[in-house]
Amino acid sequence: MTKMVPQTEEIAPAPGAAKQAKEQATDSNPLHLLTRNLRTSGIYIAFVAIVVLFAILTDGVSLSPRNVTNIVLQYSYILVLAIGMVIVIIAGHIDLSVGSVVALCGAVSAVLVIQQGYPTWVGIVAALAVGMAVGAWHGFWVAYVGIPAFIVTLAGMLLFRGLTLQVLDNISLSPFPREYSRIATGFLNGLIGGDGYDAFTLLIGGIAVAGYAVSSWRSRMAQLRYEQPVESLPLFIAKIVAVAAVVMAFAWQLAHSRGLPIVLIILAVLVIVYGLVTKRTIFGRQVYAIGGNLSAAMLSGVKVRKVNFWIFVNMGFLAGVAGVIYSSRMNGAQPSAGEMFELDAIAAAFIGGAAVTGGVGTVVGAMVGGLIMAVMSNGMQLMGVEQPIQSVVKGLVLLLAVAFDVYNKRRAGASR
Questions:
Q1: Is residue 140's pLDDT more than 50?
Q2: Helix (H, G, I), strand (E, B), or coil: what is residue 42?
Q3: What is the pLDDT averaged over residues 310-330?
Q4: Which residues cross the membrane (predicted)?
Q5: What is the pLDDT of residue 234?
Q6: Which of 47, 61, 206, 216 counts the most CB atoms within 10 A of its CB?
Q7: DSSP state of 12
Q8: Given this model, what pLDDT does residue 40 score?
């Protein structure tokens, strides 16, 4: 009699298990982790490389305390615009009017403060209110009427440039009172002493480094709790040390010049606030959802029109802030103020990693992109490079940044 031997039944793998296992194996691959980290951190590596390059080409003049301070003062308003622009681009839109809005806000502030003698705070509030009103105008046409942002803001660029000429009666107004001009040219120094340097600036730099380290550690712990891949601990520590070295070197240069610029404090507050808004709030997640997949965002209950409206109101507000800073820096208002600012802000966002198709980008990335443009412009000026050549270089850098984004998307699509 034949003895029956029970056969073991083969269990079919669960749907998606093979794919999940493949992704886990890929994530644990050191080469893949290194490639991914280089892709996400490439903008920071490029920034450091550009700083070092121009330091060599200018015999160290670009890193002198005075020049580092001048970079902060000269390009702060572009960085403010880049914060708003990256949010607009993440949502899949564009704003071509911000340069004209900067000019209009500065013009309104100048008329009130210089011509009519109102206090400084009245001019600042009026500039911010005008910026938000312009943003609401754009938001209405984009969100509720359905006209593409490119057309609406192109019309706005012409419209608000014309209003600027009307407000100023086609003449320049100057000077502002000292308290107004201190917004973009004032410094905090001597608060806690220092022998040949400003200790307060170094203290603020140390606090910034500590805050970044704590925030990065908490983010890493959260990723580990959710079993998400993270870089190795030595690489994580090396990144913190590198950031700390750059920040403290920057603070050291400022401390040996004129101290901590007031405009840098304004910019730091905006970066922190908008970094939290984009990453930790419902509004921020909805902006990414709209830019990433509009249909899915609508099906998931996102009020797309409302979000788009407030995106442009926010852009107008930041254009008002930039208008105050720029008019303070120039100590007056001019009809031609803000020309080409929109292109610098857009370039900063794209160089900083924002995707052309929307859904991708960060505030910090836009800041780094703006600093790359600032360092290049400043370095070429120190080298005596002619303006046409500077424009060619900036255009090529922007083109390469967008090409790199397109290449990464194709590469990611091919690996799926």
A1: yes
A2: helix
A3: 96
A4: 41-60, 72-90, 147-168, 188-213, 233-252, 259-277, 307-326, 347-376
A5: 86
A6: 47
A7: P
A8: 55
> How many other C-beta atoms are found inside a 10 Å radius of the C-beta of residue 230?
16
Could you give the CA distance from residue 19 to residue 25 in angstroms, rounded to a whole number? Answer: 10
Please tell me the predicted confidence (pLDDT) of residue 285.
94
The SS3 assignment for 173 reads: strand
Pair of tokens at residue 13: 């793998």
DSSP symbols for 302-365: --HHHHHHHHHHHHHHHHHHHHHHHHHHHTSB-TTTTTTHHHHHHHHHHHTT--TTSS---HHH
Task: Report pLDDT digits (tens) over 195-212.
Answer: 778 888 999 999 999 998
Contact 91, 307 (CB under 8 A): yes
Distance CA(232)–CA(240), nearest Å, equals 13
Q: Name the CA dihedral angle for 99, 101, 103, 104, rounded to a multiple of 10 degrees.
A: 160
Buried b (16+ CB within 10 A) or exposed e, 348-364: bbbbbbbbeebbbbbbb
Phi and psi, residue 16, nearest 5°: 85, -5
Query: Residue 71 in contact with residue 264, Cβ under 8 Å?
Result: no
Q: What residue type is assigned to position 297 of the chain?
A: A
Instruction: Give residue for tokens 């020309």.
Output: 339
